[in-house]
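pinging the channel bc i need a second pair of eyes. not urgent but kinda urgent?? the chain im working w is below, pasted from the shared doc
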Amino acid sequence: MTSAQGDETARTLPPWWVVLLVGLAITGVAFAIGRFSTFGNVPATPGDASAEAGFARDMQVHHSQAIDMAMTMYAKTDDEQLQALAYDIATGQSAQRGEMFGWLVQWGLPQYGEPMTWMNGAETGGHDHGGATATDDETMTDEQMREAMGMASEEELASLRAATGTEASCQFLELMIRHHEGAIPMVDAVLELGSDERTLTVAGNMKKGQIFEIEAMTAMQERFGCEG
């Protein structure tokens, strides 16, 4: 086709064709802009020092002990209400622990890190929980970490395994209430410092569940006549 013929064709295009071509051009530009803007809005993967990574690591450790105590109590008690609670804690926290393990795999991060340093700067007070303290330059001992997280000592776990009857029930309830209370500052810290949507959703639901269970266990303590 010659230049003259091309000009003639352009001049003879119907008006609706011109509108269609312009519309397609605008749509193409809008699509390209949308694609680039979408790329820019992809959430960043949490890094090794992020609150999300620290929360996933520390809460797995925390959950592991709760699962152990709950399974011990489930096999030990004949009280249906307490057995149901122990079952719910064991199965629920097992599922959460597995999901948090999966996050770290997905993010390409190691499963282990310096405990609780990720909480520094949060209004919860960093390491200052339950009487255990450590500065940014210190490494927490295992004992300090357990105390900060409200976790039971090896001696307390051994006592729970050896106890029977109401004594076992009361020991379990006391240890698990303290354990749940130790988790709440970690949840609050990741809710304050984190930005990953899935992590924040799980943490928020975790806090609601543990507060509910604390209330249920407190009522059980009264029913069993536990001291203190």
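so The chain has a mean pLDDT of 83. and The helical segments are 3-12, 15-40, 51-76, 80-107, 142-148, 154-162, 165-193, 197-224. — does that match what u expected or am i reading it wrong
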